[in-house]
Amino acid sequence: QKEVEQNSGPLSVPEGAIASLNCTYSDRGSQSFFWYRQYSGKSPELIMSIYSNGDKEDGRFTAQLNKASQYVSLLIRDSQPSDSATYLCAVKFGGATNKLIFGTGTLLAVQP
Amino acid sequence: NAGVTQTPKFQVLKTGQSMTLQCAQDMNHNSMYWYRQDPGMGLRLIYYSASEGTTDKGEVPNGYNVSRLNKREFSLRLESAAPSQTSVYFCASYEPGASTDTQYFGPGTRLTVL
Questions:
Q1: How far does B103 lie from chain A, in Å, by closest CA?
Q2: How far apart are CA A87 and CA A58, in angstroms?
Q3: Which of A4-18, A65-79, A86-100, B58-72 is predicted with the least confidence, judged by mean pLDDT?
Q4: For residue range A81-100, what is the model confidence (pLDDT) as tens digits?
């Protein structure tokens, strides 16, 4: 069974702090990793994708991938109240089907 | 350019009733997906269609059927609704090989089965 695991939270951080969100996955053959943000009552939207080991930065967001440890993380610098949402980790497992397996999501609350 | 649209937005059914959830995309994507989202369970794939004319089961297909009507439209049918099917249903579309490697989600349908 292919699995993606996240801590459900809530993760509470003060405004301006760094929020660190973590995700582990079960299939060593996975090649593509995604972070989606989902506001309450809304649909998920992609914020970061990462395919190679190391860090990928986009504005205040940094995704980190360690395939040896089967671990992917998302750092949000200078957290804002508007970042308060559920963050979903998704993994595209090996094969040609382009299917994603989602984690259960981590609820982030940024306190003003 | 509306992206992915879903109808209806809300629906209440009684146990045993049937209904079809509609999904359409205007991005000319080949692949389409149906997910359900339950509290604490994340998004789970019900069915997907890799291309027009093909459909395959996902993680939780029992109690559902799908139809890929054409390249734009992918519908999800509940033949005999059960309270366990109370959930939020999301449709998504995706184009393999596109520069933006992401699934695009519709706004969701909130279904309650009494």
A1: 8
A2: 16
A3: A86-100
A4: 999 999 999 998 766 667 89
